[in-house]
Amino acid sequence: MSALLQVSNVTAGYGDGPAILNGASVKVEPGKVHCIIGPNGAGKSTLLKAIVGMLRIREGDVTFKGESVKGLRPDQVLRKGICFVPQERALFPKMTVRENLRMGGYSMRDKVDLERRIDEIEARFPILKERRDQHAGTLSGGQQQTLSMARTMILRPEIVMLDEPSLGLAPKIVAEIFDIMRVMTEDGITILLVEQNALMGLKHADWGVVLDLGRTLFEGPGQEILNDPRIQELYLGGRKAA
After folding, report:
1. CATH number at 1-81+159-242
2. SS3 of 86, please?
3. I want to staple 219 with a disulfide (CB 3.0 to 4.6 A). Which of 103, 188, 194, 209 is the partner?
């Protein structure tokens, strides 16, 4: 299967500082959940920011459906069909849940269609309908993450990139977040996520990528990566994954 998104030998960093990515490569296939893992400082979040245009790519290339997106602004990348959800979730805390969903489609000219799409999202995620008039800043962490992820679906992107979606959440809520990812793939959205919780991320991923020192060490089916002795030693204390 041909790649939907291809990251090829990318070098990138912040400003004029040293390179954080040193030849990272990732192949993203349509309709699957892809999980990037690696130690702190490996360049995982930096990779997502480089793909979406928040950081300048110094060397290498990023192609989406065979077309280079290198050098595009984040808004241009979004219009191509790639949506990014950062760690901080970027919600509007003093706006209601419904208003936040509406902001997800701010670029849509057909406002009737926008409201229809919001209704569809609320039907898929009943908690958002229940809390539609509540300010986003007063939601629980899990509810905020649900809102952040659901909001990306308004524009019906082809790829959603998630940076540490389970960060700071209780285990039960983390499980719910990964369930939402499956809902998104059922709607035809491809997922690329960075996840510090290697066990949870790989368990739910079709494809795993291991990044370290800004390079792709190895990749493969999620379960195979999870059962790799190197991953068990690094992340699971030598225990075999269940």
Report:
1. 3.40.50.300
2. coil
3. 209
